[in-house]
Amino acid sequence: MAGRTTHISIITLNVNGLNSPIKRHRLVEWITKQDPTICCLQETHLIGKDIHRLKVKGWEKSYHSYGLRKQAGVSILISNKIDFKPKLIKRDKEGHYILLKGTIHQQDITIINIYAPNNGAAMFIKQTLLKFKSLIDHHTIIMGDFNTPLSPLDRSSKQKLNKETIELNNTINNLDLIDIYRIYHPTSSSYTFFSAAHGSFSKIDHILCHRATLRQYKGVEIIPCILSDHNGMKLKINDKRRKEKAYITWRMNNRLLNDQWVIE
To answer: Active-site residues (predicted)?
Structure first.
């Protein structure tokens, strides 16, 4: 298996459109520099006839979801460095999500890449998670642009979470999923997006993992990206994905949300 690697890292980035050849070229340069093994992109704005334009040398496997108009659009790109075999693909007809289930070096993995619409983002994420409830397992990683903070720390304004976001957090918790960034950075106020209209920073890009397999991850970070109005995020997975069934029982204290951060 020459050229293969057991080191796995996954990047997520809202690219804010890829119809410009220059933008696509800069994205390829950025991916090459970051050197992930899997790349999840949101807001590609590519339609069916243009998908072939998104090419990265050494990344022959790519999976896309797109609509009829040049908006939304999500893609999952997979490097030739890993032996990935697909088993199941589910796409949104408007390009807001794609679910990809398969194996990497004969180990199961499910990736759900989501771009939530600006309006009703928290409800959309909640409904998408519930739609895929039967497919979400210990090997699932969910990432993308959720278009909503999950914690008061995710906003520079420290604005209170609304009821829809609290309901989303409850759903995440009930599915045994966890915001892995907050495991490694529990008090960090780092952001992935700047809103010029509101003059505020926020972290609306997220990575959710199953709490039963947290030990297989070795870190997550926000990474700068000058080609988009979002920063990216990178999740690093241990070289040897542990097979122990150790179950991490950390669970969000919902009282912290309900008591302090709900808008009445």
So the answer is: 115, 145, 230
Structural domain including 105 reads 8-260
The CATH number linked to 84 is 3.60.10.10
Taking the chain, what is the end-to-end CA distance rounded to the nearest angstrom?
58
> What are 18-74's pLDDT values in tens digits?
999 999 999 999 999 999 999 999 999 999 999 999 999 999 999 999 999 999 999
Q: Is 108 a catalytic residue?
A: no
User: Does residue 113 have a known ligand-binding role?
Assistant: no
Is 154 marked as a binding-site residue? no
Residue 206, annotated as binding a ligand: no
145 has binding-site annotation: yes
Active-site annotation holder among 145, 154, 176, 179: 145
| 230 classed as catalytic | yes
Name the catalytic one among 45, 64, 139, 230: 230
Going by C-alpha positions, the residue among 101, 85, 190 that lies closest to residue 142 is 101
Residue of 115, 181, 191, 217 with catalytic role? 115
145 is catalytic: yes
As given in the structure block, the two tokens for residue 257 are 């949300």
Segment 102-123, tens digit of pLDDT: 999 999 999 999 999 999 999 9
Tell whether 138 is in a known binding site: no
Assess if residue 17 is contained within a domain. yes
Query: Is 247 contained in some domain?
Result: yes
Q: How many CB atoms neighbour CB 245 within 10 A?
A: 8
* Structural domains in the chain (count): 1
